[in-house]
Amino acid sequence: MRDESRTMIGLLALARDQAVEGELALTLDAILDTGALPDLPILRTCFTPPAASAPVVVVQIPSLSVYDRLMQSALPEGIAA
Question: What pTM does this model have?
Answer without folding.
Answer: 0.59
